[in-house]
Specification:
globular, seven-stranded mixed β-sheet, 184 residues, alpha+beta, 32% strand
């Protein structure tokens, strides 16, 4: 029997709060400094992370955290893929986990809840713009939740002394493109 907690054991997926920003900032800094899932090269400070969070929330979009016993294990949010109005039904997801939370199913629960909330908002497509084609964890997570591979931007970023690809994946939300959206 493993000492690793099951994903659901005491785990809550909930809307982020302002007091989560220090933990979110630390999780993202780890991913910036050690990972290739983001092509950001310099980790933002708490004020910048709070500004980014506020921007997402001001658009009425979700920013969620996975919390166990008061500790933030990861976070996920959705933002518009592009700022032009025609993209208003197409969202891009972002998901980052604390290193200690990897492989426990936390990411799957976070992304599933993010998808559900975005569908409830009337979004019709979700895109994953995944840093590094070697990012098997993120690619596998998205595939497991219904995302399909739609392309690769070869050598789009330079990080840690080498070229990195960007993997594009997409998933329909709700009725997808089978009908016109209500506020079209």
């Amino acid at each position: 029997m493993s000492d690793t907690p099951t994903p659901a054991a005491g785990l809550r997926i909930r809307p982020s709060r302002l007091d989560d920003v220090p933990a979110i900032t630390a999780i993202y800094a780890w991913n910036v400094n050690r990972g290739t899932g983001t092509f950001e090269l310099d980790a933002p400070d708490e004020a910048e992370v709070a500004r980014r969070r506020d921007d997402v929330l001001a658009k009425g979009l979700p920013w969620l955290v996975a919390d166990r016993g008061g500790a933030v294990l990861g976070y996920a949010y959705a933002n518009h893929f592009r700022p032009r109005r025609a993209y208003r039904f197409c969202l891009e997801d972002s998901i980052y986990l604390a290193d200690a939370a990897r492989g426990q199913g936390v990411g799957r629960l976070l992304l599933a809840e993010l998808i559900a909330r975005c569908e409830a908002l009337g979004a019709r497509q979700m895109l994953a713009v995944i840093g590094d084609s070697a990012n098997a964890g993120s690619i596998g997570l998205h595939r497991a939740l219904g995302f399909e591979h739609t392309g690769v931007l070869k050598s789009a970023g330079w990080k840690f002394g080498q070229w990195r690809d960007v993997v594009l994946m997409q998933r329909a939300l709700g009725l997808g493109d089978t009908t016109a959206p209500v506020d079209a």
